[in-house]
Amino acid sequence: MLTYPRKVVLGDITVRDGFQHEEKTISTRAKLWCVEQLILAGFRRLEVTNLGNPAGMPQFADAEELLRAVRGSKLIRDRLAQVELTAVTIREKAAERAFEARQQGWGPDRILFMVSTSESHHRRNTGITREAYWKMCERYIRMAHENGIKVCGTVSTIWGCPIEGPTELGSAVEFTKRFLDIGADDIEHADHDGSAPPNKVFEYYSMLLDQIPDPNLHIAHFHVTRGWGLANVLAALQAGVTHFESTLGGIGGQPANFVDDCPVAGTGRYYYADPNIVGLVATEDMVVMMDEMGIETGIDVEKLLEIGRVLERILGRRLRSEAIRSGPIPKEPTGR
Question: Tens of pLDDT along 286-332?
Fold first, then answer.
């Protein structure tokens, strides 16, 4: 008989990972609305911006403005103490921006560094070798803790690389151990391009939890480039994973290399000829599925579905979520 965790911890990363792939600028007001509504719906973990150089990712030129607005929001003032806000800080200057913002009282609670098991993918994302990056992480994780900020270490290209192809699952486990050894507070295990089939997801997380059994240290992050997102969530649940990330409408992916009317650096050429096939697991669908399975999420399902419907209006197109159309399974006769 298959068993699943009775309770999970969900983090929504729409406002960062979701919006980073959008080819039009999303207003700070719209981003703030999403953060506020997700918190009111029950989320206690949100990834809200990237503190890297906005010249390459202009979607996040408003990083400080958004963080200040979230901290100053009267609508969620009573809930913020229980919420963990994360900002991505791939390199040193971004981390230093986080430290300064934290000292001023409005910075993130948690930052994120990222290592890929594929050297090519790692260089594309960070601009330096892996070994140089590990040395940077040792220093900056310590500095983050000195500034009262937690650190998430992301391990990427676990199941494959869009540049190099196949990768070794065991390498990701070793990278996880290294991140934890140098002080990372938790680890995001990322399928950043939809290369993970469900059987390999189960294999990886079973191996991982056998060697590092604390489920609070591990966060599952799946993309849906090939349509396997929810199947991979189910496989991870079966392996004992309890922490997941996702985006509203299943949006997101590689940073946009064209925003509004102008090409930008992003992280270079898109990995796929059709930039519209990328995206993450849809938060709405994952929450509805878990709710139907009897897994406690702490999320107000109906409110979440309404947020998803509004996001489609913000972005001006139909998104990936099926649940915002079909809703949960009716619990009583519908009379139709």
Answer: 999 999 999 999 999 999 999 999 999 999 999 999 999 999 988 77
Q: In whole angstroms, what is the distance from residue 309 CA to residue 296 CA?
A: 23
Domain ranges of the chain: 9-325
Q: Tell which residue, 224, 285, 218, 231, has the closest CA to residue 253.
A: 224
328, 334 Cβ separation under 8 angstroms: no
DSSP 8-state symbol, 246: E
Q: Report how far residue 95's alpha carbon sits from residue 88's, in angstroms, rounded to the nearest whole number.
A: 8
- Residue 12's beta-bridge partner residues? 46, 246
**Considering the entire predicted model, what is its pTM?**
0.95
Per-residue pLDDT tens digits for 37-48: 999 999 999 999
> Does 3.20.20.70 match the CATH number of domain 9-325?
yes
Q: Which of 273, 204, 272, 193 is nearest to 228 (CA)?
A: 193
Q: What is the DSSP letter of 280?
A: B
